[in-house]
Structure formats: structure tokens, C-alpha cells
Amino acid sequence: LPGNFSPVEGISLTFSATVNAVYVVLMIAIAYYAFNKKDVMA
After folding, report:
1. Among residues 22, 18, 41, which one has the least CA distance to residue 32?
2. What share of the chain is helix, strand, coil (3-state, %, to 5)?
């Protein structure tokens, strides 16, 4: 992306990436817990 494009004022790419990374970790943890609880592989 050319220049300092930011669709929302005051939100940097670093901040956005950090928030997304936290959400991904949370979703994976929830999925891991749910699949282990149901014991899908057995």
C-alpha cells in the first residue's frame, strides 16, 4: 500500500495485526478445547 493509508484514523497496522493475532489464538484455543471435549477422533 502506498503512503500511510489507514481506513480508520488512529489505528496502525501493528495494532490491527496484534488484535487479529489475539483473536486467532483465542479461536484456536476454543476450537482445541471443544474438539478435545467431544473426543472427535475416537
Report:
1. 41
2. 60, 0, 40
List CB contacts of 12: < 8 A, sequence separation 6 or more.
6
Task: Please state the domain extents for the chain.
Answer: 12-42
pTM: 0.61
What are the residues whose beta carbons fall under 8 Å from the beta carbon of 13, sequence distance 6 or more? Answer: 6
Burial of 17 (0-12, 13-18, 19+ CB in 10 A): exposed
Residues 25-40: tens digit of each pLDDT: 999 999 999 888 876 6
pLDDT at position 6: 63
